[in-house]
Amino acid sequence: LYQHFTNMSPSFYQKRRIGDLMAHATNDLQAIQQTAGVGVLTFVDSLSTGGFVICAMAFTISWKLTLICLIPMPFMVILTSWFGTMLHRTFYQAQEAFSSLNDKTQESITGIKVIKTFGQEKEDIEDFRKQSEDVVQKNITVAKIDSLFDPTISIIVGISFFLSIVFGSRYVLNGELTIGQLLSFTTYLGLLIWPMLAFGWLFNIVERGRASYDRVSLLLQEKVDITDHEDALNVVPAGKIEFDLAKFTYPGETEPVLKDIQFSLQAGETLGIVGKTGAGKTTLLKLLIREFDSYQGEITFGEKTLPAYKLEKLREAIGYVPQDHFLFSATVGENIAFTNPNASKEEVENAAKLANIHDDILQFVDDYHTVVGERGVSLSGGQKQRISIARAILMNPEVLVLDDSLSAVDAKTEEAILSSLRQNREGKTTIITSHRLSAIQHANLILVLEEGKIVERGTHEALMELGGWYKQMYLRQQLEELVEHGGH
Ligand code: ADP
Q1: Which of 250, 284, 448, 450 to mutate for ligand 1's pocket (most ligand atoms within 8 Å of CB)?
Q2: End-to-end CA distance of the chain
Q3: What is the pTM of this model?
Q4: Are 372 and 379 in contact (CB under 8 A)?
Q5: What 3-state class would DSSP assign to 320?
Q6: Across 269-393, where does the E strand assignment appear?
Q7: pLDDT > 90? residue 139
Q8: 12 CB less than 6 Å from ligand 1?
Q9: Spatial strand order in the sheet of 258-265
Q10: Nearest CA to ligand 1 atom 21
């Protein structure tokens, strides 16, 4: 299941909630484990003990009396399988409710700062209470069905006893059996109680396991939508990147988010992509790292289409720094050396220097050994961004993609990072999307996106001459910068 989780594409995680996935991995697997372990053991145990006792009764005492005492058994099978079906359904619902509760808890703990800032604790507790009440109710329903098994089996066994004593006594009276044999017979019957209870318990446990297995199977059946083609190349792509895209629509949506995107970027060039929020900048980058395949048109890298390469190799060529950067609960150094844990201290420090975070790191308690996140230091948004950039720089990828990754650093730091990147990444391609136009003004090609279309393109100078959105925006940002610095 874990392997499946790591194989799945981002679209899977967009549909599924974390708490729900965790519930599958804990509660459901536990129920399946019960069936596979204790369930199988109980099955073998009840079958062998029960079968042995019945054979002993039939062959050593009386097969007629054995058949008579087995008359109620089919009823037991019918009733327990009926309870089993009900149990299956209710247990499935109980597990679903647990999934929701798990998800709610996970979300609340992650978002506790927001909950507190907006004073929503009471509402959140109330919400939790309702959901946990739901879990309790659904589990009580399961328990009610659960509790039907034992009495039903006891009644059936009781009827068996009754029948064997009534008929056994008649056989004793007409001399077919001795009293001693009847006594042994009922003793044997007593030995059948455990296998029968175990049989009922088996139904119970198997139905729980099946319900959980159904839930886990649903997850396992989800197909990875981006896979390697059979003859995919096992080489890291390099060279020219060319987009010739007619249309891209997100799966399940109707409106295309990218239309008529055509451009080409030689190896070593820098591409800047700008435009309003929602214009499609991130989407364009997602297509380049092959998060989605379902577009009309072609994207080539080194003269071959993206699916021509093994996904792993394609991703090796691209160092992508997303907007929502993520740092692990590990040391700063480990976070930077994430893609290459064997990197030397110098390499890590060099990447940090390029990302303009080295000096900050030296200020931390244990410099590069300081633990980040929950168990360690809290970093500012800008520091996190720069550590994420250092991580991508250390990878020294063919293509470095900065997806609005400098939004939380000031203009001066941004300029410092970009100019050191320009010097150190000679011959390698860089793609930058940004709100701040100063970040991309040195690019060889700038694309202005609006509602998924390229509306302006060219170098900074060409776009300034054009006098469109880019120029307006550039002048406005310059003015804002000036005002921010008090006119100096
Ligand atoms: P930008 O990076 O320019 O702000 P995006 O590429 O993130 O823009 O988004 C472009 C459009 O695509 C937006 O309208 C957004 O709502 C939509 N969009 C983004 N991601 C998804 C997704 N996973 N599923 C459906 N629509 C999406």
Answers
A1: 250
A2: 59
A3: 0.77
A4: yes
A5: strand
A6: 270-275, 295-301, 304-305, 318-321
A7: yes
A8: no
A9: 258-265, 241-248, 295-301, 304-305
A10: 250
User: How far out from the chain centre does Cα 378 lie?
Assistant: 25
Quick check: CB of 254 below 6 Å from ligand 1? no
Ligand 1 centroid, distance to 439 Cα (angstroms): 22
**Angle at alpha carbon of residue 380, lines to 378 and 385, rounded to 5°:** 115
157 C-alpha to ligand 1 centroid (Å): 65
Q: 286 in ligand 1 pocket by Cβ < 6 Å?
A: no
Q: Which segments of 112-225 does DSSP mark as H helices, in order?
A: 112-117, 121-173, 179-191, 193-221
Token pair recorded at residue 36: 């596979």
Asked if 57 and 185 count as a contact pair (C-beta separation under 8 A), the reply is yes
Tokens representing 181 are 């044999």
The CA distance from 454 to 481, in Å, is 27
Which of 282, 403, 405, 435 is the pocket-test mutation for ligand 1 (most atoms within 8 Å of CB)?
282
Tell which atom from ligand 1 comes closest to the C-alpha of 279.
Answer: 3
In this prediction, residue 66 has a pLDDT band, given cuts at 50, 70 and 90, of very high
84 lines ligand 1 (CB under 6 A): no
Distance CA 203, CA 93 (A): 18
Please compute, for residue 366, the number of CA atoms within 13 A of its CA located in the half-sphere on the CB side: 11
Q: Which pair of structure tokens corresponds to residue 370? A: 């300081």
Average the pLDDT over 358-370 and give the result. 84
Please identify which residue in the block is written with the tokens 């303009």: 356
